[in-house]
Amino acid sequence: MFLKIVSIVSAIVLAICFSCQTSQKLFKRKPTENNVSPQALDYFEKAFGYIRSEAYHRKEIDFDKIGVAALEKMVNAQTSADTYGAIAYVLAELKDRHSFFTPPSNTREMLAPHVSGERTMPFEASVIDREYGLIVLNSYNSPYKSETKPIADSLYRTLQYFGEKNIKGIIIDMRFMEGGTYVPFVGGLAPLLDHDLSTGHDMLFGYVYSNGRKEQIGTYKGSIFTKGGRKQAQLIQLSNWKPLPVANLPIAIIAGKYTASAGEMILIPFLSLPNVRTFGEPTYGVPTGKSNIFLADSAMISLANSATFDRNGKVYDGPIEPDVNINTFKNGSPPDSLVKVYLADSLAKAWIDKKSFQ
């Protein structure tokens, strides 16, 4: 999940700009009609307006119908808290499987690990059978560079270590990379992604919004940056960087039904590389960028507002199919969980073995 924090001020401006017509249609009714206080109605209008304006699939959604149904869920609403259920309903009706609403108490819990300074390394790495470098990615989320940069640097050092061990290929296991932020992972794995950028083509992937606006994520000498129009901003920079020989090795990526959101965004920049092959199952299917808005009482709307495209321009907004789908084995019957793990691991190693002899 690519997290972009949007201020309440900008959200209110957005709501005012586009909710005027909506208000005339849906909110013209008097607040007393369902015994809804002006405070509660105003809070809901701003949240609804933001969603209606920014949702990626907004052009395909009947917001008038959803708005009327949401208002029916606000009978006797007097405070902002009384509208939470209606806002959550609107987000659920987007049916993008990615957007959600979080009350103030839960947002504080989400930020608590970062406030307290707790830190864990969200990946494991090892050399298996003295031939394959294995990296297992786990979900991780933090908006702070002070926390993401050590992860990226550690991943980079892992790739250096693999080179010292003369491995013949790399396996990246993303089966349980369920989301969060892609930044430290793409940053640390950048040497595997930017080794063929001699043409000056520095884009790894990008986002396309419902209004057609595009934003690119690129890399240059250990830096990951975002670029939209004339604006460019650095997301992360490796402490030390130089091209690594392991970038030219075969790279097998294992993904599955729990690979989601940020996990899918980490996967996408690898897909068009000639030395990469993917194994496993189709991903969960939410490779959508998100924008987070904190409302006046610190409740949060996390909204899917863009789809992801690869460096060739192909847009992804659903499950990503692997090159080798393990569900097609065993005479067409889906294998059980343990067999799936064995199949994916074995097929990845076999492909690396074959590539290393070519």
Task: Report what the structure shows.
With 358 residues, the chain is an alpha/beta fold. It folds into two domains: 93 residues, no CATH class; 235 residues, 2-enoyl-CoA Hydratase, Chain A, domain 1 (Alpha-Beta Complex), CATH 3.90.226.10. 35% of the residues lie in helices and 23% in strands. It has ten helices and 15 strands. The strands form two sheets. Strands 1, 2, 6, 7, 8, 9, 12, 13 and 14 form a nine-stranded mixed beta sheet that branches. A six-stranded mixed beta sheet has the order 3-4-5-10-11-15, with helices on both faces. Strand 3 and strand 4 form a beta hairpin. The N terminus is likely disordered.
- CATH class descriptor name of the largest domain: Alpha Beta
> Any idea what the CATH architecture of the largest domain is?
Alpha-Beta Complex
Looking at the structure, the CATH topology of the largest domain is 2-enoyl-CoA Hydratase, Chain A, domain 1
Low-confidence stretches: 1-25
- Termini, distance in Å? 37 Å
The total of beta strands comes to 15
Output the number of helix runs: 10
Q: Secondary-structure element sequence?
A: EHHHHEHEEHEHHEEEEEHEEEEEH
Q: How much helical structure, as a percent, in the residues?
A: 25-40%
Task: Tell the overall outline.
Answer: elongated
CA-based gyration radius: 23 Å
Question: Approximately how much beta-strand content do the residues carry?
Answer: 15-25%
CATH homologous superfamily caption of the largest domain: 2-enoyl-CoA Hydratase, Chain A, domain 1
Structural class label: alpha/beta
Keywords: Signal
InterPro entries: ClpP/crotonase-like_dom_sf (IPR029045), Tail-specific_protease (IPR005151)
Organism: Persicitalea jodogahamensis
Domain Tail specific protease: 132-325
